[in-house]
Design a protein that fits this description.
It is a single chain. The chain has 260 residues and is α/β, with parallel strands linked by helices. Helix content is 46%, strand content 15%. It has one domain: Alpha-Beta Complex (2-enoyl-CoA Hydratase, Chain A, domain 1). The strands form two sheets. The protein has a six-stranded mixed beta sheet with strand order 1-2-3-4-6-9, sandwiched between helices. It has a three-stranded mixed beta sheet with strand order 5-7-8. It is globular. Belongs to the enoyl-CoA hydratase/isomerase family.
Length: 260
């Protein structure tokens, strides 16, 4: 089956739920609708005993490049609905009772980092990178990123990523403990399939309880992070720095903050 929402493909085959962001012309940047469609897919199959593993990935050259700031006019800027949809999606992936593979097939930026790290086993192509790009447009990380990143790599490195908005190449992300593995680009599809099959053929309930135990121990602040990020982001979305950041992004020039 396929989602009714353009930009998200959902299939179930041989025990595997595959949720694919499919907006390649926008580098899989997401809107409120596409985020809700991803969350709907995980919610719908959470109680399906036939599903033994899930894969979240992207089509084309990117995994997900964050919220769509320059797409169709109808998409508009991020709003409270977008933030809520991002939080709902990360929470749905976290709560899914089967292992979720985050198959990062290209850049993961903005909320794309949140989606990738909400997964249980995040793996990436060698050419991929991770970028918390929020401060470049005068915003703060959301989608649970302030908890998800810090839980993996600690406060110092999380703050460096969040404040400086610098790219973290996949190999460095692996060395830092942000993700589980990296594969050469030309071996990635086969590697994802092999890992998917290994999990699908494994002890589902043992995986379920293990996933919940590790996540409960390490993501104790996730729900609070959703609330803090929502409050902060809604304030930032009304500020002059955000307007300048988006204008600079669309005009492909450096932003000049603090002039409002």
């Amino acid at each position: 089956m396929t989602s009714d929402i353009p930009g998200v493909d959902t299939t179930v085959d041989d025990g595997v739920l595959r949720v694919t962001l499919n907006r390649p012309t926008r580098m899989n940047a997401v809107t409120t609708e596409t985020l809700d469609a991803v969350a709907d897919s995980f919610d719908k199959y959470a109680g399906d005993a036939a599903v033994r593993v899930a894969v979240l990935t992207g089509t084309g050259r990117a995994f997900c490049t964050g919220a769509d700031l320059g797409g169709k006019k109808t998409s508009g800027p991020p709003s409270s609905a977008t933030i809520d949809a991002a939080n709902r999606t990360a929470a749905a992936i976290r709560a899914f009772p089967r292992p979720v593979i985050g198959a990062v097939n290209g850049p993961a930026a903005g909320v794309g980092v949140s989606l990738a790290l909400a997964c249980d086993l995040t793996i990436a192509t060698e050419s991929s990178y991770f970028l918390l790009a929020f401060t470049k447009v005068g915003l703060m990380p959301d989608g649970g990123a302030t908890a998800l990143v810090a839980a993996s790599i600690g406060r110092a490195r999380a703050l460096k990523l969040a404040l400086l908005a610098e790219r973290l190449p996949a190999r460095e992300a692996l060395a830092a403990g942000l993700i589980a593995d990296v594969f050469p680009d030309n071996e990635f599809a086969a590697s994802v399939d092999a890992l998917t099959r290994r999990l699908a053929d494994g002890p589902s309930e043992a995986f379920h309880l293990t996933k919940d135990a590790v996540n409960d121990a390490t993501l104790t602040e996730l729900d609070n992070a959703f609330d803090r990020e929502r409050t902060g982001q809604l304030e930032l979305l009304t500020a002059d720095d955000y307007k300048e950041g988006v204008a600079a992004f669309l005009e492909k020039r450096p932003a000049v903050f603090g002039r409002g």
